[in-house]
Amino acid sequence: MDFLEIINKRYSVRKFASKPVEEEKLQSILEVGRQAPTAKNNQPQRLLVVREKEGLEKVNKAARLYNAPLAIIACADNRQSWKRPFDGMDSKAIDASIVTTYMMLEATRQGLGSVWICWFDPEVLRKEFALPGYIEPINILALGYPAEDCQPAPLHFERKPLTETVAYEKHNW
């Protein structure tokens, strides 16, 4: 599958089959995430893989997993993220998001579905998984095989034209 096929095939899966994700597919997803670029190559991402029933129940206290058999909580280590010297902007959310994007696309290549979850209570995750204060949960990637009747949401296919999102030399926003 070439890159554009992966991009066009990927959608947010909100109904998963109960089939578990094979270990070799998970390891491939994690390895692709490991290869993702991060600011100054600091690699502040910390990925918490959750696939046991008890752990998934903990995640479900903070977010809706759509019955996914596997979740990766993408976190960032505040002690290792790069800070822009001009204004202090912290790269942690960007870095963790790049890693998550790479993993999401690799999951699609592997024939799996995913949904990127940002609607979650970080304090619940902190408590349930005893995360230290310097570790910040950024997003959750729910993974698994899509249920047979799962379809992309209608909004998935709506994209603004480039003329609304791209400017050359001078912005027109």
Order of helices and strands: HHEHEHEHEH
Shape estimate: globular
Report the CATH C-level class: Alpha Beta
- What CATH architecture do you see? 3-Layer(aba) Sandwich
Supply Rg.
17 Å
Mean pLDDT equals 97
Task: Give start-end ranges of low-pLDDT stretches.
Answer: none
Helix and strand content put the structural class at: alpha+beta
Assembly level: single chain
Helix content: 25-40%
Ordered list of secondary-structure elements with their pairings:
Blueprint: H1 3-9, H2 23-34, E1 45-50, H3 53-62, E2 70-77, H4 92-109, E3 113-117, H5 122-128, E4 135-144, H6 162-165
Antiparallel strand pairs: 1-2, 2-4, 3-4
Helix pairs in contact: 2-4, 3-5
